[in-house]
Each structure stands twice: as C-alpha cells, then as structure tokens.
Design a protein that fits this description.
heterodimer, A: alpha+beta, 7-stranded antiparallel beta sheet, 6-stranded mixed beta sheet, globular, B: mainly alpha, two-stranded antiparallel sheet, 7 helices, 8% strand
C-alpha cells in the first residue's frame, strides 16, 4: 500500500464517516485512520439478534465489571448487550485533574454505533449566543451558512420529525414522525394553552420511519421499533457510520480504512507552511508509519482531536499544531444533564401505549432565547416522556403473585423530564497533555480539568422550577425534582478546545474549519465548537463536516491547499 | 411436605451434581457449597430454593440456577454477605416454629411467615434485604425466562410499530 493519499481522515465516527463519504464520492483517494478494531455493519453486531433470556444476567452488569470500570459503568448504554462497544477504564487511562467521565467507543464507527440518535438543528439564536451574551468569541458562521448542509445530510441520514414551524428549532425535510403517546400529547396541548413560548414537540431522530430511495440504495430498511439500537441494527434502521457513510465510501473504491491506527501526531513542514501527513502507531504491533496527504481532517472525537493537535509539536508550533495563541485545549464545554423532574398523572386510566419507540418528546429551549431574562446566561432544552409501569407487587407471593405477573395491572402514568443545558466555555475548563504519564503507545496522557460553574447551578434551579410549574399546570401530581450530580462528560457531548472564530488571536479555526495557521488541517468534530447551545450535537457535526469537505475539495481544485 | 422436599432434591440433583442434600446427615459437619464470596450448606441451598418456590411456584432448577448466578456475579461481596446474614436471620425466625427449615412449616404457616416478611422493612435491614432480593430475583427469573417471554407474555423482538394511545 502506498502511503500517499489525496486526503487523510482521522476517526471513523460521526464526523469522520461523513468526511470519508464526501471525499470518496468526490473522487479523492482517502485514508481513514481508526484507532479501534474493525466493526463491520451486520457482521460484527454479536448481540443484535439475542433474545432477552439469552443474556447471562438479563442485561445487567456483573459486579466485577462495574468495579473494574467505575467510569464507563455510569453510561446508560453500558450494559450486558453492548458493553463490547465501549472503552473500558483501564484500556485507555487519562488523568482527571477534576473529575470527568470520558465515555468513548474505539472501533469503526466510534460512538455513532451507540449514540442516542437525537437530531435537532441549531437556529440563528444558537449561533448568536456568544456575541449577544458576551462570552467565548463570536461564531464565524451562522444558520444561513449551515442550513443547506443540514438539508444535505438530513436527506442522506434520514431524519424522522414533524415540521413544527419553530424559529428556535428550524425544520427540515423530515420522514414521518413516530407517535407521541396519550399523555405526551395531552401535555403538548396543556403547554400550548398555558404558554406562548414553550412547546412540546416530537423529538427528531435519525430513524428511517419511511425509507426513501436513497436509504434503500444504502441497503437500509425501515426502523422496526426494536429499541435495541446500541447493539447495532441489522435493518440499518438508525444512522451510524457503520451502516451508512463508511460502506457508502467503500463502494466508491476510493476508501482505505486502517484499523488499529493510533495517531501520534500531525507532521508539519516548515518550508511549505503546511501539514504533510500523519504519524501513526499500530495499536497491536507498535509499528510506526507515516502517511501523507495534502488535506487532513481531524475527526477523532473532541478530546482526542485536542490531544492529537497538542502532541503535534514542531519548531514552528512548539505548543501544538496551530496553537499560536496558547488557546488550544481551552474553552472546553459540554451539556449540563444533571437535573430531572418527575411526576404522576392519574387521568387517562383507560389508555396506554403499545410497543416500543426509539425517541420521545422534546422541549426546545425557551429561556433567554430572544433576550436576556434570567440571572444566568443561555438556557436548556429538555426531554419529556410518559409511560405506565405496572402496579407494584408488594404484599403478593405464590399464585396471587404469578397471576399478577401474568396479567399485570397498569399503574398511574408516570411523567419525566431531563434537562439539556448549555454550558459556558471558559479558559479554565481545559484539557492538556500530562507532563510525564504516557499511554501504551508513548503518547502523553490527556488531563481533564473541567467543572461546572455558578451559571450551571442557577440553570439547574431554574429548570427544576420551570418544569415543576409546567407539570403542575398540566395537572401532574407528586412532582419531584432531582439533581443527580453527574460529572461533566457523562452527557457524552464534550466540545471545544479547538474553537472556531474570526480572529486568529482568539480562536484556532476559521469559518471553514481550517486551522488559522495551518490551513490544510481541518477540524470538524466537537472540538471545533465555539459554544454548545442545547441541541444534541451530532447532526451539526455532520453538517459541518460535509460543508468543510466541500470547501476543501473546491480549494484543492483551485490549488489553494 | 416430604413429597415437596424430595422433589426439590431431585430437581436440584438433576441439574447440579453438587446439590446433593446433606440436610439429614446431622452427625457430621455438612460440606459447604461455595456460592460467590459466601458459603452455604447444601441444605441451606435446598431451603433457599423452597422459599423461592413459595414466592414463585413456577420456580425450577433452571430459574434457580439463574438466580444464584445473578447473586454471585452481580452482587458485591458486601451485598452477598448481607444476603447471607439475612438468610441466617430468616432461618432463626423459622426455627422458632420448632422446625428446621421453611418447607417443614405447614402451608398456612408458610403463608403467614411470608406475609410477615412482606411487612418486614427497616427494623431488620439484613432480613429485609435477603427477602426482598430473593423475591425480586425470583420474579425476574420468572418474567425473564424463555417460557414467560414466549408463552405467557410474548416478547416481540421485531415489533415494526408503536401505538401511542390504545385502550387498556
């Protein structure tokens, strides 16, 4: 295999998969470097067709696994059926200057295999955040720049949704929604009666509720409501790199996917003023190899992208590639998922839902949207769902218990919400390389130095108060608020460190995702985020990546790169 | 009662060779069965099976095997110890009825005893933990079993649809 390519993409997850697809489709001989093992669609989903009783512990984790993996065991999807897709704590250690739960999946497709598949667009209100409220730096791009790329990726991915007509959460050309249930619909109506600026909508998600010809061409079929997505879907019912972008790229004949390829650093040529390629260590053999290409996309997952750049030192860039201003690794942010509000609803006793569905209801951000109205900056979106658990079987045993288990009686409806808050990027929230500790490939370990702040605490209190008020007005009872005190990181939405901006003195990337001082290196994963807003970010990374790849190919043709 | 005991013994011996009851051999130390990080005699395991079967009459060796595996694999050593202590408490309470094991009680007394256990809560945390764990896992061993999920309340692996609002 030649070591020269037209483009190198680091990472095969949500962003890397899209870079691969775009470059390969446009005829570029593309190398994708994936540090983890090979996971091929259909072939490598060992649990996907297992029945519940076929798991030794009916899905639960053995104590030894939990004890050996205190970090990853906190992740909701790290269960008996999918734990083989997550990085175990001891495999890839990092240093927590402040506690941070780093949830990772090292394999082809990365975390796109196990993601929660929520896909809400950003609006201009989200891009305006930093400039309007005076934090971080202004975004160099806005909704008008990314809207056509949302259209582009959504058409290929397949997004189920309603056209809700909300300026805070722009619509796309959606596939049909899955139903909200009785109580979710009821709550939607109640909120509409009580508020003008708050909405309960169906949460848009990357599921094929009605495949279009493009999805059938991808070899995918309609989502079957199995709700076993984290195992990998044999129908391709939800979007992942494994089921969609990577095989699509491979079909062009232009893709070389290299597994077990741990990127050590990006090589920089001072005379050319460009990056020339990537230094890679084989995870299994420890053999170092260099690969060369005129364009390099770093899509390693936000924190690993920071690590690669920080470790890419040269005479020109002694503090990491592109790090002239010393801000590389700083202004890390995430989503605040700490709080929940729950309640009961004792009406609609004659109704229930039937079956399973891969999404629920969504409450778009309503705080500080058009003007500042609280004592904290920005706001939160929220998930909402209702369900009817069976009545408890306390006091029963013997035949009476068996009868109740065979014919369970539904109890009252339970309602629940969880917050998804924007956090404010700060220079004190940062990652950097440890001075002495190295990983198994002699690469410095990552140090995480990230924490909540007062703004987050105020936002939690407001979310709890506002959702409680909305629940109360809807007639829900026994309302309880909770703060689970989860650590940063467990939201699995870590972002920043290589932020975009207009000014090279205060940002690392320009509006086309190029390093200001090394323009043939692009960053399109979560590391590029100037601010976080509240939406689940993967859709935005995909749109950013497609847009940047389009720019890169055009620039290459014009000999600008 | 004897019939039931024999049945249990037969079932237990049928699946796991180590489950040979030594309950009646009282003149020599009973061999211990290693169970996770704790130890039980075979008679104690038989007794546990009998209690579990009183909670879920469909209990059989396969389900009980799942239950014991779950406790040894998924309970921390501390929780296993608490379960053991709770069992001892349970047994102590049973012996007040002048019987050696739960299944020696007349059926109506077994029912009365389980009713008491249902009310047992904070006054004896280990006993409560033992009973609630055994009950919870007995239920799961039943509702998670193949027979339950294929014949009683069939699990639909590929439902193909979701209905948000249907009559109960």
């Amino acid at each position: 295999m030649s070591n020269k390519f037209d483009a190198i993409v680091i990472g095969s997850g949500m962003s890397g998969g899209w870079a691969a697809k775009e470059f390969c489709e446009k005829g570029l001989n593309t190398l994708v470097l994936e540090r983890g093992r090979k996971v091929e669609h259909l072939k490598d989903y060992p649990t996907t067709n297992k029945m519940p009783w076929e798991f030794d512990h009916y899905g639960d984790l053995p104590h030894s696994v939990r004890e050996e993996n205190p970090i990853i065991s906190k992740c909701y999807a790290f269960k008996e059926d999918a734990m083989h897709f997550f990085v175990k704590d001891k495999e890839h250690p990092y240093v927590q200057e402040k506690p941070f739960d780093w949830i990772r999946g090292y394999q082809t497709g990365g975390r796109s295999l196990m993601w929660a598949r929520q896909t809400q667009r950003w609006s201009q209100y989200d891009f305006d955040g930093p400039a309007r409220d005076g934090f971080a730096v202004p975004w160099p791009i806005g909704y008008k720049d990314i809207a056509p790329w949302y259209d582009y990726v959504e058409a290929f991915v397949g997004i189920s949704g309603n056209r809700d007509g909300l300026d805070i959460l722009p619509d796309g050309d959606f596939l049909p929604p899955i139903e909200l249930n009785c109580v979710e619909t009821y709550f939607q109506q109640q909120v509409k009666k009580q508020y003008t600026d708050r909405h309960i909508i169906y949460a848009r998600c990357a599921h094929l509720t009605e495949p279009r010809p493009i999805h059938l061409q991808q070899g995918r079929a309609q989502c079957q409501n199995r709700n076993l997505c984290q195992r990998g879907c044999p129908f391709g019912g939800y979007f992942s790199s494994n089921s969609v972008t990577i095989p699509w790229a491979a079909k062009t004949g232009n893709l070389t996917l290299q597994n077990h390829a741990v990127v050590h650093s990006i090589m920089y040529d001072e005379q050319k003023g460009k990056a020339t390629g990537v230094r890679v260590i084989d995870a299994e053999t420890q053999k170092a190899t260099e690969y060369f290409a005129p364009v390099i996309f770093i899509c390693a997952g936000a924190l690993n992208t920071n690590l690669i750049l920080l470790n890419s030192t040269s005479n020109r860039f002694p503090n990491g590639l592109g790090n002239d201003n010393g801000l590389l690794g700083k202004y890390i942010a995430f989503h605040n998922y700490r709080a929940q509000v729950n309640g009961e609803f004792h009406q609609m006793a004659d109704k229930n839902e039937k079956g399973r569905r891969p999404t629920s209801a969504y409450i778009p951000r309503f705080r500080n949207v058009k003007k500042q109205e609280t004592d904290f900056l920005r706001g939160y979106a929220a998930g909402f769902d209702a369900y009817r658990p069976s009545l408890p079987v306390e006091g029963l045993f013997g035949q009476a218990l068996v009868e109740k288990l065979n014919q369970p009686e539904p109890g009252p409806w339970m309602v629940g919400s969880h917050m998804m808050g924007e956090t404010i990027p700060k220079d004190t929230n940062q990652v950097y390389l440890h001075a002495s500790l190295k990983d198994a490939w002699d690469i410095p370990q990552m140090v995480t130095d990230i924490a909540y702040d007062d703004n987050d605490e105020k936002m939690i209190a407001d979310y709890q108060a506002q959702l409680s008020e909305m629940f109360e007005k809807a007639g829900f009872t026994n309302i309880k608020v909770n703060d689970d005190k989860r650590l940063p990181g467990l939201d699995i939405h870590e972002m920043g460190g290589v932020r975009m901006g207009t000014d090279p003195k205060t940002s690392l990337l320009n509006g086309n995702h190029q390093l200001h001082s090394c323009p043939n290196v692009f960053v399109t994963d979560g590391a590029c985020m100037t601010s976080t807003s509240t939406q689940n970010p993967s859709l935005t990374y995909m749109a950013f990546t497609a847009r940047a790849a389009d720019y890169a190919v055009k620039a290459m043709k014009k000999m600008e790169l | 009662m004897l019939k039931r005991r024999q049945l249990i013994k037969t079932l237990a011996a049928g699946t796991a060779g180590i489950w040979v009851s030594s309950h009646f051999i009282s003149c020599q130390p009973e061999p211990k069965v290693k169970w996770g990080s704790t130890e039980y005699t075979q008679a104690e395991m038989d007794n546990m099976f009998a209690i579990s079967k009183s909670i879920i009459p469909a209990m059989d060796t396969e389900k009980f095997k799942w239950l014991t595996t779950y406790i040894s694999d998924c309970f921390s050593p501390e929780k296993q110890q608490q379960f053991r202590e709770g069992y001892n408490q349970f047994q102590k309470a049973i012996m007040k009825g002048n019987v050696k094991v739960f299944s020696d009680l007349p059926v109506e007394q077994q029912i009365g005893f389980l009713q008491l256990m249902e009310k047992e809560n904070q006054s004896n945390p280990s006993l409560s933990f033992f009973y609630q764990s055994l009950k919870g896992l007995s239920i799961r061993s039943y509702t998670g079993s193949k027979i339950f999920l294929t014949q009683v309340r069939p699990y639909v692996h590929v439902p193909g649809r979701y209905q948000g609002c249907v009559p109960v």
